[in-house]
Amino acid sequence: MEERRGYWFLLTGLLIGLLLGSLYSMVIAPLQQVDMAPISLSAADKDRYRGMVVAAYTANPDVSRARARLALLNDPDPAAALMTQANNLLAQGGSASEARNFAMLASAISSINAGTPLPLAAATPTLMVTPDTGGNAAGTAPVQPTVTAPSAPTKAPTRAASATVKAVATVTLAAGVPTATPTATPGAPFGLKNREQVCDATLGALLQVQITDASGNPVPGVEVRVTWVGGEDAFFTGLKPDKGTGYADFTMNPDETYTLRLTDGGRPVTELKAPRCTDADGKTFAGGWLLSFSQ
Amino acid sequence: MARRIFFFIAILLGIAIGLGIGWGILPRLNETAQPETLRADYRTDYVLMVAEAYRSDQNASLAQRRLAFLGETDPVRMVQEAIVFGGQVGYASADMELMLRLLQALQNLKPQG
User: Fold this and answer.
1) What is the total count of domains within chain A?
2) Which of A90, A113, A136 represents a domain boundary (last residue)?
3) A153: closest CA of chain B, how far (Å)
4) CA distance A31 to chain B (A)
5) Could you give the ipTM of this predicted complex?
């Protein structure tokens, strides 16, 4: 009996210690998060961070810089993450132009990943070493940082993990260098060049759109609107870069008749209805359309 | 006497386990970081992104809202810290200028709002 009591007092001591240790480490002096990386952000905060990358890219279309920033989030496929966020944005009734910006960056990144040369510029940004301005460029700011021209784009960061950020910070596009983002020839509207019935049971009633510019290059970020009796939907080219940056698709309801219109101009395509197709066994199924637009 | 010594050792062991749970195990279970805990280089790059966007839209209020992502610190102070850090690690002067312009815009915005 005395032996058992001995064990109990040990357990009591352990519990008292555990209580004291937990109280100290969780209440009195809890661990504070410091020096965290974007990869540790919550999904919602990652979305906001990604949105900021897109906003910065829209203002300064430097795809290498945007790609390096997105790499900090460690998405398995940054372009796919952008596409998903663009789709979510549209689904939640968000700004179409913002979703378009997401699509543009997704397309630009996919183009580089696929090694596709971009039509209007080199994929690699030009490095510019800007001479020291000699201090305060804004004139009235209270902070007088010493701005030194970087000798190389990958100056040693404070820690190894921040190498990407440093590379981002010191690479700038030279003034006048065309952007790495493929864009359509300004002004010219898109016209329907080909309307092809697609009888493929695996695709079903898929309305596929291919858009190219006057040079035949695929154009990402073009908003496509489909309307039907009692409904409307919008989608963008470039959200499925594996099928081409000028590609977009929409699944039709076989019972509906659609009108398709590009918001960048051109005449609407009317009377789009899923065609009836027959497979090798004589079974009928709803087919789709492939619409090719060009400037 | 021996019982007291063992009791004291048990308390110390309990404290060690408690500290291990509070400082070692629980933080790993909840690894989600708040944006305000981002390291200085990431914060600075975020401020630079806001400055890049500001150059295009010239909307200081929007820039202020975007900076709020990094926490409740005064946005002017955030940009000042980013400028200082950028200067220390050798940001390109074009980037520094963007942040200085943003700083100026936020300082002009502050008295009104």
Assistant:
1) 2
2) A113
3) 9
4) 6
5) 0.85
